[in-house]
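[[Per-residue structure]]
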Amino acid sequence: MKFWIKNLLVKKELLKDDPSMDMLAVKTYSSDTTINIKNSTMALINCGGVEANAGGTINLESVIIATSGHARLSFIETAIAVSGNGTVNVNGGKYSSDKYCLHIYSSGGTINVTDGEFTAETVIEFTLDKIPYPDAV
């Protein structure tokens, strides 16, 4: 399954009491999913940007992702994340977050950066937990 998104404008603000505060603007849930986002802007409050999960792929080209505020779970506060061997390819753009720009969870994944500007409290974060992930890369 492949998706192409161009000239997208996402403005999303979640309220502190909203149970969907653990959400991201874009997330893959299977290895046969590729999402291509080009020339788009995501202005997000109290939620995260994109996450490639379960072996899926997200390609970002000339994208702006700005996350701010605080999600109920702090590890969600990221512009770009990978987990479950997902892959995000970044080719240009501007990425900012109050917490993290690039986040790799314990379950593994790959973030390939060709070009881009990154601003955050912590630009690159690696989360380690006590759950074993034998397939993590």
Summary: Residues 60 and 90 are 5 Å apart (CA to CA).
